[in-house]
Amino acid sequence: MLISHKHKFITIDIPKTGSRSFRESLLPLGIVDVCGEPNLDSEFYQHDGAIYVKKQFAKNNWNWNDYFKFTIVRNPWARYFSFFKYFKSYGEKYLRRDKSIDWKKPEINQGKLCVELFKENDHQTVLKNIILNNDSQDSYYCNANGKIIVDHIANFENLENEFVFLCDQVGIKTPILQHENKSSNSQIIHEIYNQQLIDLVAKKEKSAIELKGYNY
Q1: The pTM is what?
Q2: Which residue from 63, 154, 159, 212 has the fewest beta carbons nearer than 10 Å?
Q3: How far is CA 7 from CA 11, 118, 145, 174, in A?
Q4: Taking a C-beta distance cutoff of 8 angstroms, is the pair 143, 59 a contact?
Q5: How does DSSP classify residue 216?
Q6: Contacts from 34-37 at CB under 8 Å and sequence distance 24+?
Q7: Are 13 and 1 in contact (CB under 8 A)?
């Protein structure tokens, strides 16, 4: 979640939709006044939904309507599979204490959770738990009545062009888009999904699927 008062924009960062690439590309420009933190207890969390951010705007006497509100959605079957690969990779890194990660208490706790997620569970059960325990994408860009309260819902599948669009919209010279947080796990999506899981995602992510015409 990024807020720029000068350029009047807000990004609502849905997990596993490329938001880190935007964050790593925009922060060095010095135009971001608020960057959501990884701590859930912070005033602005990195993956806060639009409902909460709007409330925080009111609390700070900032005019929500003055800002361009931008978010990214992704094919939901691919998104949950991305969670699966990330958690699997992170758990493996924890077990070998991979040197690419600074293993402080939060990282250790996350590593333990990832290992526990896969412990004695088949991959379909793991993916089902991931689908059930992560918020649907529309919960980030809709209000309690299901009304969209952001100005632009970008496509992850067209990330480069969407980044250019955002920069043009708010008057920023477009920097090179950084690509971060890629999982190295080589497992393919069709090895994990069965029909039950395909249908589970279809039901949960009905809004994003209809909005963007996604299919499995």
Answers
A1: 0.91
A2: 63
A3: 12, 43, 29, 13
A4: no
A5: -
A6: 34/1, 34/2, 34/3, 35/1, 35/2, 36/1, 36/2
A7: yes
